[in-house]
Specification:
single chain; alpha/beta; 7-stranded parallel β-sheet; 7 strands; globular
Length: about 240
C-alpha cells in the first residue's frame, strides 16, 4: 500500500525552517517512514493552478528540492524509476521515493515538457485538480466549466489535442492518475475508442482514483462504476486506488 498524496516537498520549499526530508514538522519524513516500515512513498509535486503564475518554474523548484534531498539522504532513501528499482529497495532496506506531478496543467500540453518530466524522474501525473486546464476540468462547480459539451453527452470533453497528450503519457511510461475530473476524462477516452485510428492503441496504465466507491457513497471524487467497462476498452490495465 503506497500513499500517493504527500505534500511534504511543497511544505519544505515554502517553509525552509521546518526541517528537511530526513526530519521535519510535517506529516512525512524519512524518520517517520522508517518507523512505519514503509517501503515506497510518493512525493507529489503539487502546484496550485489558482495561486501560481509560473507553473513550470514552480515545478522545477520543487523537483530540484526533491531530487537534492533524496540524493543527500541516499543511505536511507532511493529514487525509484522502475519496478526493478522498487524490487531493489525491498532488498536493500531503503525507502523507495516515487516522484509525481499533481496538476497536469503544469506541462501545458507540451509533449517536450512531458518527456523532460520523465527524464527528471517523474513517474506519475495527476491530470487535473480543482481548476480546468488543457487536459480536463473538475466535474463539480459550474464556475470551473470551460469546455464544449458533446451532443448527447452529460459532461464536457477537452480539445482533441488533450487525448493525444494522454496517449503520450503512456508512450513515455508515465502513470496517469484520474482525480475529481473522472467523468470528463472517461468520456474523452470513450470517444477515442470510436476513432478507427485509435482502436489499435492501448494506454498502458491508468490509475483510477477512489475507484468504484461511488456505488457505496455519492461524492465528487468517486469514479462511476458503470464507466469501468468503457475505460477497459481502451486500457490494458486499470489500477484501483482506495
Amino acid at each position: 500500500m503506497i500513499d500517493l498524496h504527500c505534500d511534504t516537498i511543497m511544505q519544505l520549499l515554502d517553509h525552509p525552517d521546518s526541517g528537511d526530508l530526513y526530519r521535519n514538522t510535517w506529516k512525512i519524513d524519512i524518520e517517520k517512514l522508517q518507523k512505519a516500515h514503509s517501503k515506497v512513498q510518493d512525493f507529489a509535486l503539487f502546484i496550485n493552478l489558482g495561486e501560481t503564475n509560473d507553473l513550470y518554474g514552480r515545478y522545477e523548484e520543487m523537483r530540484n528540492l526533491c531530487t537534492t534531498q533524496i540524493h543527500l539522504y541516499g543511505e536511507h532513501i532511493q529514487h525509484v524509476l522502475s519496478y526493478q528499482d522498487v524490487e531493489s529497495v525491498y532488498e536493500s532496506g531503503k525507502i523507495g521515493a516515487l516522484m509525481s506531478i499533481e496538476e497536469g496543467g503544469v506541462l501545458g500540453g507540451d509533449l517536450d515538457k512531458l518527456k523532460q518530466a520523465y527524464q527528471d524522474g517523474v513517474r506519475l501525473i495527476t491530470l487535473t485538480w480543482n481548476y480546468p486546464n488543457g487536459l480536463g476540468e473538475p466535474h463539480c462547480g459550474e464556475q470551473h466549466k470551460k469546455f464544449n459539451v458533446c451532443p448527447g453527452a452529460a459532461v464536457s470533453v477537452p480539445p482533441s489535442d488533450a487525448t493525444y497528450f494522454l496517449l503520450a503519457n503512456s508512450a513515455v511510461c508515465v502513470v496517469i492518475k484520474i482525480p475529481t475530473s473522472s467523468p470528463l476524462l472517461q468520456t474523452s477516452l470513450e470517444a477515442l475508442v470510436c476513432r478507427p485510428s485509435m482502436r489499435e492503441l492501448k494506454v498502458t496504465l491508468l490509475l483510477s482514483n477512489h475507484s468504484l466507491l461511488s456505488s457505496l457513497l455519492v461524492h465528487p471524487v468517486k469514479t462511476r462504476a458503470d464507466n469501468a467497462p468503457i475505460i477497459n476498452k481502451l486500457l490494458t490495465l486499470i489500477m484501483i486506488c482506495f
